[in-house]
Amino acid sequence: MSASLFTTLFLVALGLYTAIQLWLAGRHIQHVSVNRSKVPPAFANKIELTAHQKAADYTLAKTSLERIEIVLGAVILLVWTLGGGLQWLDSIWGSSGLAPLWTGTAFLLSLFALLSLIDIPMSIYRTFTLEERFGFNRTTVKTFITDQLKQFLLLIVIGTPLIAAVLWLMNNMGTYWWVWVWAVWTGFGLLMMWAYPAFIAPLFNKFNPLEDGPLKQRIQDLMTRCGFTSNGIFIIDGSRRSGHGNAYFTGLGQNKRIVFFDTLIESLSTDEIEAVLAHELGHFKRKHIIKRIISMAIFSLAGLALLGWLITQNWFYNGLGVASPSLHTALALFLIALPVFTFLLHPLSSWFSRKHEFEADAYAAEVSSATSLTQALVKLYEENANTLTPDPLYSAFHDSHPPAAVRIAHLNS
Ligand SMILES: [Zn+2]
Prior knowledge:
Elements lengths: L2 H32 L14 H32 L4 H10 L5 H34 L7 H32 L4 H28 L2 E3 L4 H13 L6 E4 L10 E4 L6 E5 H6 L2 H16 L2 H23 L3 H5 L8 H16 L3 H22 L2 H14 L8 H7 L5 H8 L2
Parallel strand pairs: 2-4
Antiparallel strand pairs: 1-2, 3-4
């Protein structure tokens, strides 16, 4: 393939990627606006009109911002690739006099740091304007700044050895380096899943063990019923940053934890909390977590095999604005340009995720109560101002959870 042909392919893919996303967002805005005036019949006596309209307005504001981000993202990608951004960064580190391994590591670390720096203005707008306007923001300027600094330090501490190891393997393991990189990458992913709840999440939130009492008793009974052991039930101070509530289940092996946001504990009854937890346990019991790990491992092996071939093709570099091929520019191009070519797989992953949500709901109905879970979901939809009327196509493409009406109808069937 010639470089100019690949440039054309890239531009066509980026055009499609941008146009399809803008079109879906436009449909979503249209659909939510049309349904703003009336609570959907299935929720008529469960949710007030004012709450429904708040959810509509919040969704409209978020989706409008999303449209700006789609366009900005395309412009930024063009600047990094055809605009010569990566070439510029490469020439800066190229003249640093560092050994090749460290030149490559510094190049990638600075690229990731710049990418997240570019993201900060949007993040400020989202936190302090959009979330603030709908009453969800609890983040102070101080928390925001310390969060950014902690993330930057994590990038350096975790990113440096990982990137250096990957570049070293690419350079020293011959034609099949990508199998080695895959093994390291997968091992790293598992290590992070294990380490995240115990070592990283506590850098950002306080984890307090759930106090003894009727709620803890209910939760322990449920876990015994389901044959589930964990390394504790915790409440985190999610309210330090946001009014949105959530519950999740994290960690691997001995480090499994159940985590509730304090905001969720405040708004749900004991029955409802039990049902939400039963849903989370459902993900574990129906082996969704292991399935996700396996499918991610398969996709990353395929991706790395593809990179193993691309790295030897000059058009891959020249067609994306990089004059001199190198291991680190190949990695950078691959990471930033790949989504443009693979985004049509996104609906497939959303579909699997929604299928898993239905299965976890069914499990919760079996071991806890469908009625309590329905009540909890209605409350959570209302409190998080999630729209009840998403555009069906937008939702099918993006949503990891089924739309409220479909999900609740399914639960009660
Ligand atoms: Zn779920």
